[in-house]
């Protein structure tokens, strides 16, 4: 009986996820026809990048328990490698995206190997140090690597970065509607990322990640290889994060060290926390809430940051599991109440009959 009820619960959850997915896909298709403002559509594209990065940080920390602070470094690495391949070798952006993502995987494995014997806050400190070192190496790169006309360019682009190295081809193909084309591409990237993440989370590999997060000692005793699992989740997360970085560079036709700022990293973490760490839909919900709130407070000047901080603080205090976690608790409570209702009524009838 228990196994049957569990299977029903799992299938019910899968059906709910499928229904939500179909609704979101329908909304994503309809969105360009409903939004006339180029600014709003541009902000939606940016929000999709945030949601993609947050979903992969959630996979890394929320599901696998690896508290890495190098997520924006992975994002920047993928963007820089894509831009540098196009700039130095003259490749088309589409041809450079996959090498950029694979290079990010290699970079993540190096980071993962450095973190193998560390846990918790020590992983966070080491990965943060790696990200900050990457930032310093870029901004302090002042040596001339090549001459572009009469301008001396640094290998990493220095504090200026790279610009106008290529785009996704939508400007030439769609002319004035190029932003809609880019939106469709980035929305597809986000959709594919979420599908792959869902499959991983629901697979035996995902169960191994969760086991290592919840009880590492027990998971290792049951045969889960912590080192292999940690490297695997680093690699998977880095691939999609680096790929998103390449698309980001191509969309904006520029990439610079500003992407590695601490504020960007904190915003990604805040998105995941507000939406719900360890929940599948948390990063998307958190992105909608925080990006939407940030836009609504755009004219508030210095109170804009204060307002975002207040939202994050209230979310942590009132909803430790995030918005999705709170909604999940509410749904379970309603199911329990509905299931207990008939039983309670039957007991009342028996009591009235003197049984």
From TrEMBL:
TM stretches of this protein: 16-34, 40-60, 72-91, 97-116, 121-138, 180-201, 231-250, 265-293, 305-324
Provide the Gene Ontology terms for cellular component. Answer: plasma membrane
Q: What are the alphabetically sorted keywords of the record?
A: Cell membrane, Membrane, Transmembrane, Transmembrane helix
| Signal peptide residues on this chain, from the entry's feature table | none
The GO terms describing molecular function are: branched-chain amino acid transmembrane transporter activity
Q: Which InterPro entries match?
A: ABC_transp_permease, LivM-like
Topology relative to the membrane: Multi-pass membrane protein
Location relative to the cell: Cell membrane
Can you say what this protein is called?
Branched-chain amino acid ABC transporter permease
């Amino acid at each position: 009986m228990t196994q049957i009820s569990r299977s029903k619960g799992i299938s019910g959850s899968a059906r709910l996820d499928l229904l939500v997915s179909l609704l979101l896909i329908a909304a994503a298709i309809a969105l360009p026809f409903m939004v006339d403002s180029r600014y709003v559509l541009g902000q939606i594209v940016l929000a999709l990048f945030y949601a993609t990065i947050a979903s992969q940080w959630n996979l890394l920390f929320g599901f696998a328990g690896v508290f890495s602070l190098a997520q924006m470094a992975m994002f920047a690495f993928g963007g820089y490698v894509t831009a540098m391949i196009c700039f130095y070798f003259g490749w088309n952006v589409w041809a450079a995206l996959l090498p950029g993502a694979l290079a990010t995987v290699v970079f993540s494995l190096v980071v993962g190997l450095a973190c193998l014997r560390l846990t918790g806050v020590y992983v966070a400190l080491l990965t943060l140090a790696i990200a900050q070192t990457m930032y310093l190496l870029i901004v302090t790169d002042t040596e001339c690597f090549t001459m572009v006309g009469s301008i001396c360019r640094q290998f990493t682009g220095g504090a200026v970065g790279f610009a106008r190295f290529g785009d996704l081809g939508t400007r030439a193909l769609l002319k004035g509607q190029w932003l809609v084309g880019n939106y469709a591409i980035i929305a597809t990237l986000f959709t594919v990322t979420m599908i792959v993440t869902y499959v991983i989370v629901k697979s035996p590999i995902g169960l191994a990640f969760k086991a290592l997060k919840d009880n590492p000692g027990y998971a290792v005793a049951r045969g889960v290889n912590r080192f292999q699992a940690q490297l695997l989740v680093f690699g998977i997360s880095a691939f999609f994060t680096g790929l998103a970085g390449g698309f980001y560079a191509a969309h904006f036709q520029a990439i610079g060290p500003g992407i590695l700022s601490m504020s960007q990293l904190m915003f990604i973490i805040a998105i995941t926390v507000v939406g719900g760490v360890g929940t599948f839909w948390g990063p998307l919900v958190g992105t909608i809430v925080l990006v939407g709130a940030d836009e609504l407070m755009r004219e508030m000047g210095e109170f804009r940051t204060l307002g975002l901080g207040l939202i994050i603080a209230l979310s942590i205090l009132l909803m430790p599991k995030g918005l999705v976690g709170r909604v999940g608790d509410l749904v379970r409570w309603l199911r329990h109440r509905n299931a207990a209702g008939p039983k309670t009524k039957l007991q009342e009838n028996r009591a009235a009959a003197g049984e």
